[in-house]
Amino acid sequence: MWPAKLPGEGAALLDACTAMCDVMKKLGIAVDGGKDSLSMAARVGDDTVKAPGTLVISVYAGCPDITATVTPDLKCPHSRGSLLYIDLSCGKHRLGGSSLAHCYGQLGNTSPDLDDPDMFVSAFNLTQGLIKDRKLVSGHDISDGGMITCLLEMSFAGNCGLDIDISCDSDVPFIDLLFAEELGFVFEVSKNNEQEILGAFSAVNIPCFFIGHSTKDTKKKSSVLFPEVDHQVCVGIPPIKVAVLREEGSNSDREMAALLHMAGFEVWDVNMQDMCSGKITLDQFRGVVFVGGFSYGDVCGSAKENVSSGVGQGVFLDHNDSGRFECRFVTVRVQSSPSIMFRGMEGTVFGMWSAHGEGKMIFKTPDIQNDVLRMNLAPVRYVDDSGNPTIVYPFNPNGSPDGIAALCSEDGRHLAIMPHPERCFLPWQCPWMPFGMKEKLDVSPWYKMFQNAFDWCVEQV
């Protein structure tokens, strides 16, 4: 975006495009399209107000392994991580255009720049290799607020402390070193890998400095409770068949099938047309799952009066209180209930994907709602950061009363749940979990729901 029609701005635009092309050639990146807005100026009275010239570059690339990722939150491996600063600024610490300058009502004279594209390529390739080899625990760039902002954001996100000694043998003024928004990273690594990584960057002539430690904050305790998850193989029993019903507009059927198969079931993909034509009947199945998704309307009726016994006839779904589709990883708590799928999971507090536009549970009368709570027929509740049921947005994404996220029948055999456990039964499907927990777990707590269902079916054989 550029006010290219004003005097001197056309030449500035040409300089920016030339610099971009030169850098992209060295990076090995091609431009395959573009969109410009070259009239970024307006008359206000007798004055001409122009927008600053802005060049926005979006890139995309293949991702061979979606689990090879690094998040910014500090994780304190072995209770004390090592923090490394990778400096790609060629020793410069320019404050022009920085957040610090803005706080003082200034612009500055010289802004950060990519002075050495070859160093940037070497750093990128080396970093990718370290991520692939699981050598980096956490990482964050310093280009938005400077090194001090980067460190504080990493600390706050991980609820960890910092023990920092930033000197780097530099004569640069301390405030420049802390707030310059140059190219660079801060990595958290295990103490065991610290020297190896320092040596790897040194070998390709990239400045890398040890700047301190992350420290474990023991003042707060985790509110996540995990049941034991066992992997069992049952021999000598007939296959336990379960049907996953789908129709136009439904989704998550593949995730559900994968989860059920992993739990030991023989999974059948059943389309509503198969049933309407009489090709398949449900009497051969031990379980039936209606997956979510109503992009063509709720063809299966799975969002209306879908709980057995007397409760279901008085419950329906309404639009979220926010008035929009909500897709977020919400925290839920498993309550005491007769549900067979939640046996032994009472007290578990963990995240679950929520994705719906009409998820607010409405009870026809207050008596029905009271009966649900009195009879413990709400096995899952949306909770706040303290683990308490809540109706407060965004902890509760739809406004369901008493934070109710699921309902079950009195005999525990039927469950209707609004969020999606099938979308987060593997650790990599969860957007975040503590580092040590993610390294140790093969499955998330929600796998046990379906393991419980399988075990119950085995008991009934």
TrEMBL record:
It is an enzyme of class 6 (ligase). One of its GO terms (cellular component) is cytoplasm. Residues 1-61 form the FGAR-AT PurM N-terminal-like domain. Its EC number is 6.3.5.3. InterPro entries: Class_I_gatase-like (IPR029062), FGAR-AT_PurM_N-like (IPR055181), PurM-like_C_dom (IPR010918), PurM-like_C_sf (IPR036676), PurM-like_N_sf (IPR036921). CDD domains: PurL_repeat2. The keyword Metal-binding does not apply. Keywords: Ligase. GO terms for molecular function: phosphoribosylformylglycinamidine synthase activity. Residues 93-221 form the PurM-like C-terminal domain. One of its GO terms (biological process) is purine nucleotide biosynthetic process. This is PFAS. It comes from Mytilus coruscus.
